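step: validate -> pass
step: tokenize input -> pass
step: predict -> running
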Amino acid sequence: MTLWSLFKQIFGFPRRVWIAWKTALAEARIRKSLQADNCLLAYTAAGIPFRDPNIPDSTDHLFPEMTIRATGFDRYVPTASAELAVVFEMDGEKHTLYKGPVELKPRGCDVGGLAIKWCGTYLARRKGPATIRFLVAERELAAFPITLIGSADLAAKAQVSDFRLNADLERAEKTESPSRSAPAQLNTIAPSFCVNSPILAPNTELTGRLILFQGDQLLLRAPFRWKLARHRTLVKVKPTKPIATFDLSRAVIAQIEIMQLVKLRCPARLLTGDRVTNFEGALVAEADTFHAPGQ
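step: predict -> pass
step: emit ->
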């Protein structure tokens, strides 16, 4: 062994120990300083992004976003690697949705573009409150309380408004008082109404039906369906002849059900000021308008 080799062996070992010790101290400082800002939890359905704590079971993907901040970097540790975990927690059970490395830097580390599949998974079929947590180096930096909902929950929150009962009368002159007209003059009726949903779920299709009756006599039964792509959807029933004789002198009761839940039950007044146009029984030009066939 040469003198130079002996010198390096004697004095190099303490230096390696010193570097390892300084590195460990810097990494401990970095882990202790970890924090997150700009934390978001978005989800997509039919290619449309949403940010809502209510997550429908038809959601395609979850997209967590955050910026990881840390201090304590020095010449021994200019950057650091850590593990990011996105954890789902519900009823005391924990499931890891994503786990992967991130590179911590003095300027911060932006985390985005993580598409976590949701629709069709075991967790998507569960319902109720839950939490999604962001952990870096096994330290929780952010938590998002969410509520998992399904079609029944969406139907329960949906509301119906603006019911109209348009009528086409077979006569030359139309008066403001249709009750003076003979029942035989009634040609077709074309009900319309708006369905309002506070939660959007473009992949979810709900069904319902409209029922018109006078006393015990059924006048019209029209099923309808629509996707929750807008907060407000106009439903128009194709102009249809009533099933039974329509007595214009008596009140008409309208009942609208969504997923077998009665959302509206009210007396209806015929609107005959303008002739009802001949709608097609399908989606029209307006994206928020659907037509339902009459029966």
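step: describe -> Helices lie at 3-33, 151-157.
step: cleanup -> pass
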